[in-house]
Amino acid sequence: MEARNRQMTLTHESSDSTEALVLRAREKDADAFAELIGRYERTALAVGYSVLGNGENASDVVQEAFLRAWQRMSELKEPARFATWICGIVRNLAIDQCRRDKHRTLAIDFGGANALAACDQRSSPDPLHELSSREQQEIIAKALDSLDEISRPIVVLRYYEGLSSKEIGQILELSPQAVDMRLSRARQQLREMLAGSNAGS
Amino acid sequence: MAENKPTEENDSLAVVVREHLTTELDRHIGKSQDRFRRFVQEQSQDDRPMRLPSNRFRGWVFSVTGAALAACLGFLMVGPRSAVPIQPAQRPTSSTRVDLPWIQQTADSQTYDGGTYIDANGNPVRVLHEMQWDRTRWFDQNQQLRAERVVPHDNVVYVKMKTY
After folding, report:
1. What does the pLDDT profile of chain A (201 residues) look like in tens digits?
2. What residues have CB less than 8 Å from A14, skipping those under 6 apart?
3. Buried b (16+ CB within 10 A) or exposed e, A104-135
4. B145: region left, alpha or beta (phi > 0 left; psi from -120 to 50 alpha)
5. Does B52 reside within a domain?
6. What is the value of pTM for the model shown?
7. Are B69 and B39 within one domain?
8. Domain-embedded: residue B81
9. How many CB atoms lie within 10 A of CB A195?
């Protein structure tokens, strides 16, 4: 998996280089900060998406978050916690964006799960494999949106970034056990939403 | 790190969710770096020392500044002689006619670009608004009389533009 192959810098063995980049960025070294962006943009996008549920909006928020981080590098007390820090900025900006965006709805359209039923009627061994069209993508987006505020970023960080529970816990400031528990429940909820609706129909 | 890695990462749910997230987010990767680079570039440009106006406006700025400077210098030259306050009783009324030697004439002008227009024949023309103030000052040392006349002019000049 691509995300899995990427070297994570949240771990202790590579945090030194992150620290070094942060220290250079504090001295207004733009190249060092650009390197940090390259490392953590995916994670930041995942966090932004988990709040906003929209890739475009998440991208806008992440871009703004990195600019703010650049201007406030001196406020980062622990360079090794850059990931947690930037994800916190992203999350706060995304929440602000949510508040401004009155049109965003968190309601789930369960009727959209009919696509799953259609998949199943084609006798696919696993209807989830059939979810590829844009409409079906929207169903998944809504299913993700139905998760609670803590479980959603856990799922997104796990499946988009391929992060371990420990790494997710570092970013979201949760214990690995709490991450595992939340993830297990979220997976169950997603399965019920995506596949369970099929049984109901 | 390995102890908490997901064991379910390749199941159907994971595949579907991962595919969705990849579709949704991968196309935005790199945008933050691009924006940051632009931001830094713009900042460095803002930090540069103030530059002279572009060639288009440089001539106007210098001519207006020069006229203003000349007027100031001329006024300073006669200023000390006219420093004595004029008493109200000595001021000429509208019905009083006095012949005073003029001491100073200045012309201040300001020209600004009014934009490009298409004239009635369909030709593009550049419109230049030229505002000019002709000032003439008189002063009588003996009677301590001072007078000033300002005549404004507002000219509009149409400059035909080349077409290619």
Report:
1. 444 444 444 443 444 588 999 999 999 999 999 999 999 999 999 999 998 888 999 999 999 999 999 999 988 888 889 999 999 999 999 988 888 775 444 433 333 333 334 334 434 455 555 555 667 777 888 888 889 988 999 999 999 988 999 999 988 889 999 999 999 999 989 888 887 655 444
2. A7, A8
3. eeeeeeeebbebbebbbeeeeeebbebbeeee
4. beta
5. no
6. 0.56
7. no
8. yes
9. 19
Interface contact A46, partner B, CB < 8 A? yes
Same domain, B80 and B155: yes
Residue numbers in B near A37 (CB within 8 A):
32-33, 36
- Put simply, the answer to whether A191 touches B13 (Cβ < 8 Å) is yes
Q: Residue B36's domain spans which residues? A: 10-47
3-state DSSP assignment of residue A146: coil
Separation of alpha carbons B37 and A72, rounded Å: 17
Measured between beta carbons, the chain B residues lying within 8 angstroms of A63 are 31-32, 35-36
Spell out which residues of chain B touch residue A194, defining contact as CB-CB under 8 Å.
13, 16
> Does residue A180 sit at the B interface (CB-CB below 8 Å)?
yes
Q: Within a domain: residue B118? A: yes
Test mutation, A21, A57, A63, chain B, max B CBs within 10 A: A63
- Is the Cβ pair A70, B15 closer than 8 Å? no
Same domain, B26 and B75: no
| CB–CB contact A128 B29 (8 Å) | no
| A159/chain B closest Cα distance in angstroms | 5
| Domains, chain A | 8-103 (1.10.1740.10), 112-201 (1.10.10.10)
Quote the number of domains for chain B: 2
Q: B1 at the A interface (CB within 8 A)? A: yes
